[in-house]
């Protein structure tokens, strides 16, 4: 597991304006300073922060305790949004702050931070390779891939953690492939989520049907499956089912289609189809524990609170019963005994887990909000939402964070609330007493 340096919550950053150039410092200078005396910001891409090496670097990851604020986010944020981001990241305006990324990015972020009241900002100008300490990375960062990695694979190159036995690249969305047909990542197939979900609850299709669909896509258990979406929650939903089926190597494009477009990479139009059906190579599901149903969810809730978490990945208003979040779901409230795992502004967004460029927030950020609700990696943890998309996203994030005993509760609020005998609650609720780590 990654280790994280805890911080207290700081007040909102005060606006100010400074014009002085940032001072410089070396990584070795920082190694002799107490970590409590300063804060360090990694202003590179979240992919490099997570563990993907930069060009020419022997390894990826970040300096322990570093906070990820990609300098490329700055130009897309209003002053108010930047202030909110710094508050969320628990940036302390009174502490010396050190930045490391490329020269352009570090100068841009340095200037932006000074407009937000940070007076003591320094830039580390040397390359990260000069850092002599241990770097931190997501335990399974290789499954959350960058656009550059996907591009290299599509072009037949052999990047780090390249597919070993072929790959299938799949765009996932609900409904007909209208946007896909106009433009998609080269070689990508198209998967309509209606093919892997079934009425009335929009749960996964039968194992027999899932086997048939996977066969049609030419996927074996040892095929590398790379998934992305215009809405990456759809891709995560497919990822959870591929993992449930038994695909050994499932990758999710960090930031989805948006990240590919932002990178400026080539696209292609029209439909790609798989030409050869294959046998999966093992019985489906090979990992049935990764997607659970109502009986398993109920059994989980009988365990002591510190040993399990049935996690609601829904908005606060959905969780307390102000809204169901969906036009087709009438009951409002939460599963009795479930814990709030955060989500976003509505049923279609996950801002609490996404950076401004729609990539995954740092494990440090996610761990902090989950710990408040006593959701920890030592527990049995199952994520649910309305029908499974948001839950699948956080399931995959927990997976790359190295959490082991995790699953998606497939039926979620929709199926649970469809049976009036299942216990539910509404109204405000405080987080449970959290454990000390």
Automatic annotation (TrEMBL):
The keyword 4Fe-4S does not apply. Residues 34-127, 163-269, 304-425 form the Rhodanese domain. It holds the Pfam family Rhodanese. Keywords: Repeat, Signal, Transferase. Residues 1-22 form the signal peptide. InterPro entries: Rhodanese-like_dom, Rhodanese-like_dom_sf, TST/MPST-like. GO terms for molecular function: thiosulfate-cyanide sulfurtransferase activity. This is Sulfurtransferase. It comes from Photobacterium frigidiphilum.
């Amino acid at each position: 597991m990654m280790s994280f340096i805890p911080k207290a919550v700081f007040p909102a950053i005060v606006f100010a304006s400074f014009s002085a150039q940032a001072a410089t410092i070396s990584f070795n200078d920082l190694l002799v300073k107490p970590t409590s005396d300063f804060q360090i910001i990694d202003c590179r891409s979240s992919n490099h922060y997570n563990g993907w090496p930069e060009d020419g670097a022997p390894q990826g990851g970040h300096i322990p305790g570093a906070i990820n604020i990609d300098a490329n986010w700055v130009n897309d944020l209003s002053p108010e949004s930047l202030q909110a981001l710094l508050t969320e990241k628990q940036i302390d305006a009174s502490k010396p702050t050190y930045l490391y990324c490329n020269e352009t990015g570090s100068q841009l972020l340095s200037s932006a931070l000074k407009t937000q009241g940070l007076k003591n900002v320094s830039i580390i100008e040397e390359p990260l390779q000069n850092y002599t300490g241990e770097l931190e990375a997501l335990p399974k960062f290789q499954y959350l891939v960058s656009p550059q990695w996907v591009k290299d694979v599509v072009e037949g190159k052999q990047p780090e953690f390249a597919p070993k036995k072929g790959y299938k690249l799949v765009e996932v969305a609900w409904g007909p492939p209208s946007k896909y047909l106009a433009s998609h990542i080269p070689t990508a197939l198209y998967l309509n989520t209606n093919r892997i979900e079934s009425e009335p609850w929009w749960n996964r299709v039968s194992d027999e049907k899932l086997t048939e669909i996977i066969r049609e896509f030419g996927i074996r258990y040892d095929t590398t499956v790379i998934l992305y979406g215009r809405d990456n929650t759809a891709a995560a939903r497919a990822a959870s089912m591929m993992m449930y089926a038994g695909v050994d190597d499932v990758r999710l494009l960090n930031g989805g289609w948006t990240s590919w477009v932002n990178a400026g990479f080539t696209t292609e139009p029209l439909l790609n189809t798989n030409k050869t059906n294959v046998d999966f190579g093992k019985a489906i599901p090979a990992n049935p524990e990764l997607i659970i149903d109502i009986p398993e969810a109920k059994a989980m809730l009988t365990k002591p609170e510190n040993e399990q978490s049935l996690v609601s990945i829904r908005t606060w208003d959905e969780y307390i019963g102000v809204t169901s979040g969906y036009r087709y779901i009438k009951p409002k409230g939460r599963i009795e005994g479930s814990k709030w795992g955060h989500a976003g502004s509505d049923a279609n967004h996950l801002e609490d887990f996404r950076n401004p460029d729609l990539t995954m927030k740092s494990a440090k950020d996610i761990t902090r909000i989950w710990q408040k609700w006593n959701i920890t990696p030592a527990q049995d943890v199952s994520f649910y939402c309305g029908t499974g998309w948001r839950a699948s996203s956080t399931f995959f994030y927990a997976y790359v964070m190295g959490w082991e005993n995790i699953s998606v509760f497939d039926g979620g609020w929709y199926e649970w609330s469809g049976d009036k005998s299942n216990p539910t609650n509404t109204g405000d609720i405080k987080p449970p007493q959290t454990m000390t780590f």
